[in-house]
Amino acid sequence: MKRAAILPVLLALVTSASASPAVIPLTLPSGKVLQTEVMVQDQDRMMGLMFRSSLAEDHAMLFVFGDLDFHGIWMKNCKFPIDILWLDEERKIVHVAEAVPPCKAEPCPVYNPLRRAAYVVELNAGQARREKAVVGATVGFTLAASTTRGVR
Asked: Is residue 57 part of a domain?
């Protein structure tokens, strides 16, 4: 590949790597609002909460998928337990996994919902129960078109 052809590719990689995920408010069924990082790109969803030492109590992470499916979550390189909510396209909770522990050894288990989901929310362990995030409850958030650009 010629040097001139490599530069645009490198620029695209640097730009995508340095772009921070959007942060939006997400309202749990209890009414508590969390500042939530929106993970849209494959590489962001794969990284998730890896290597972080904690998640602030008023924060969460939202994974946006372009399809309704059994999206699995693993805890590779995670350092603390979390609650995981799977939501359908109407933002109703279809499955909850509470206090999912960090992966201690390979192969890491993959946590899957019992029903298809379009979104996954990761919270601090114990927060789902405290904030009434149970199957059938609704989670509120609005995604801007610019936030979901690139969803497969």
From this structure: yes
Query: What confidence category does residue 21 fall into, taking pLDDT thresholds of 50, 70 and 90?
Result: confident
pTM of the model: 0.82
d(CA 113, CA 73): 9
Please say whether the beta carbons of 104 and 90 come within 8 A. Answer: no
Domain count for the chain: 1
State how far the Cα of 28 lies from the Cα of 63, in Å rounded to an integer: 15
CA dist., res. 149 & res. 124, Å (int): 27
50 within a domain of the structure (yes/no): yes
Average pLDDT, the chain: 84
Domain that holds residue 40: 20-130
